[in-house]
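Dear H.,

Thanks for agreeing to be a second pair of eyes. The structure we're designing against is below in C-alpha cell form, covering all 144 positions.
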C-alpha cells in the first residue's frame, strides 16, 4: 500500500509581509492589498495543452490531491495545498501548473504556512529581499 504524503498547515502568529518573504527566484504569488498567498519550491509541475487542457489540468490536480494526507485545522480560504496555474489563450501553447513545496498566506488577520512532506515546519527567511528584517517565526519543533 502506498503511503500518503503529509501536507501540514500551521497558523503563524504574525501578520506577514508576504511579498518580502519571496526568494529571488522560483517564487509564485497571488497577493492584493497585503493579503493572499506566496509559494516557493516545487513539489510538482506539469504542462497541458490542446483543446482538453482545462480537463487535463483538473484531472492532474485531482490525482495529486489523492496522494496527500492533509492536516489543516484552519478554516481559511487558501490554506492547505494549492495550485498555481498559468493558462495560455492559444490551446496549442503550453499552460503550466505548479504545486509549491511551501506556501505562506495571510487573510482576514490570520497568517499560516503550509508545507508538503514529512520534514518539520520550514523556517521563514529572517531577511527580506528588500534588506529589511522579516518577522521571526521560529516556532517550537521547527528545524532548518
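And this is the sequence the design step returned. I haven't edited it by hand at all.
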Amino acid at each position: 500500500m502506498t503511503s500518503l504524503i503529509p501536507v501540514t498547515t500551521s497558523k503563524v502568529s504574525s501578520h506577514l509581509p508576504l511579498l518580502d518573504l519571496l526568494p529571488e527566484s522560483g517564487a509564485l504569488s497571488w497577493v492584493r492589498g497585503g493579503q493572499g498567498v506566496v509559494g516557493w519550491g516545487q513539489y510538482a509541475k506539469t504542462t497541458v495543452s490542446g483543446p482538453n487542457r482545462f480537463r487535463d489540468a483538473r484531472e492532474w490536480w485531482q490525482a495529486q490531491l489523492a496522494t496527500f494526507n492533509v492536516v489543516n485545522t484552519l478554516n481559511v480560504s487558501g490554506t492547505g495545498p494549492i495550485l498555481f496555474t498559468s493558462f495560455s489563450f492559444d490551446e496549442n501553447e503550453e499552460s503550466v501548473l505548479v504545486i509549491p513545496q511551501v506556501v505562506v498566506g495571510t487573510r482576514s488577520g490570520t497568517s499560516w504556512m503550509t508545507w508538503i512532506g514529512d520534514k518539520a515546519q520550514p523556517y521563514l527567511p529572517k531577511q527580506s529581499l528588500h534588506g529589511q528584517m522579516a518577522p521571526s517565526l521560529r516556532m517550537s519543533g521547527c528545524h532548518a
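Two observations from my side: The chain has a mean pLDDT of 85. The beta strands are 5-12, 28-32, 35-40, 44-48, 68-72, 84-86, 95-99, 102-107, 110-116.

Warmly,
E.
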